[in-house]
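Suppose a colleague, Dr. K., hands you the sequence of a protein chain of 438 amino acids and asks what its three-dimensional shape might be. Before reaching for any lab equipment, you can write down a predicted structure in token form. Begin with the sequence itself:
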Amino acid sequence: MDLFAQNARKRHVGQPLAERMRPRTLDELVGQAHLVGPGRILGALAPGRAIPSLILWGPPGSGKTTLARLLGETLKAELVALSAVEAGVKDVREAIAKAAERRDQFGTRTLLFIDEIHRFSKTQQDALLPHVEAGTVTLIGATTENPSFGVVAALLSRCRIVRLESLADDELAQLVTRAVDDSDRGLGAMHVTITPEVVQQIVAAAAGDARRLYSVLEVAANLAGDNHAITAEHVAEAAQGKSLLYDKAGDEHYGVVSAFIKSMRGSDPDAAVYWMTRMLEAGEDPRFVLRRMVIFASEDVGNADPQALVVATAALQAVELVGLPEGVLPLTQAVTYLALAPKSNRALTTYAAARKLVKEHGALPVPAKLRPASNAAGKALGHGESYKYPHDFEGNYVPEEYLPDALVGERIYEPSESGFEAELARRRAALDERKKRG
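The predicted structure, expressed as tokens, is then:
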């Protein structure tokens, strides 16, 4: 390695490539044009200009911490950073006290950056409220989770939610090129070379995450060593498999689950299997996936195909029996069956209709003829009198009223015309006709 390369490394000793390559100005920021472009919410910043408190919401590696630093630099404000994982109420109060002192003595604005703000307790968040409202600090919170889940409503109402997006492939490729060419902060002093195909391999491994991109690139460059040329083999070794964004308790979790269910509901087996696989490969408990499928079998298929519930519960039993990895086979069999099954949501709407009647009318009395005549007192009250036993009649059916008197004539279950439920609709129509004839 030449002397220039050695000196460049000494200046940044111990710093990972991702830290060294952080943008120094908003002009260097790659991505998030919907926020910092002309006419956008953060597109006209200048020293001394006020901005509202912000919640930066976006996936890992989308630039939340970088953007907070750039806001402080551009506005010439003091940036105080706390991590919600480590900081307590005492740390917050100390930061606010110093911010008030800084404001009163020097007229300096303080940006209080709290990383992973969704991890703050309600008490910690409440401690911020009066100071954010009074303007003692401008809050910049960063979170990978939907703020509606982890940030208290009172604090949300005092902030603007700013959504950051994962970086696009062309933006990630731009970061690779910049890092390879930069001789001061990047890998230029190492004289590494890289082909467009390998750049795309790194981009694919990053999956929208700039931090992961730099990590893979840096390890691959070190593996290349004195040969300088970063190869596909170096990248594969550095990446060690693609990291799948999926927090079992967070927003991405709910997003993937929602896409999974909606794909089955939309009768798209390809998409349904894809989203299911995303969950499983990210480490989701297969029993969680199967519970959603059992619910789906009744909620979205129901009597349009009664076999769907059998298939879903059988898959649950099969996975419990064989476990993973073999359990992915009954899972895949079941999800493709459910996706292509005829659909009916009558189980959902029927229960909702019945619940509405119960809520509206309360505990209506059971008709005397439907009560059991199991003792003398009941018989004396007429329990069981005039009850017609269906098996005593032709076709095991006799016209009768079974609803409470106040609800006679109500229709709660209306079969759809989908799949087997169309047959149930025909059966019901035939029974209705017999009932009319008496």
